[in-house]
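Deadline looming. Please check this record:
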Amino acid sequence: MTLELSGVNLSIGDQLKIKGEVPSDAERFQIDLGHNVHDIALHFNPRFHDDIDGAVLVCNSKSSGCWGEEVRDLHNPLQRGTSVKIVLKVAGDWFEVLLPDGHEVRFPNRQDVDVISYVKVTGDFKLSSLKIC
């Protein structure tokens, strides 16, 4: 399943709340926030079977089509076969991702963006709702 939105207006302090289900056979999914497919300020990518670390959360950014350095968090509370709510917040110098168990992932705003106009959710995730607040 893929949801791709352009013309979104997420500013500093805004939150994107995503609810859905992680299928029992999920390998990975991603949530991208940025300006377009080539300029992504936050790439949030839970992986359930990574060759290096097993279950891991990977964050990155992409500028003019070129990926930056991955940041890996070995605390992945997301489980296959469960419903989840993930909250992503544009916090100025950082992006904050709040996970269902209360764990928070912080990723630097490498591109110093203050408005997000592009959102994409794709991969092994059955999206049930997306809300901007």
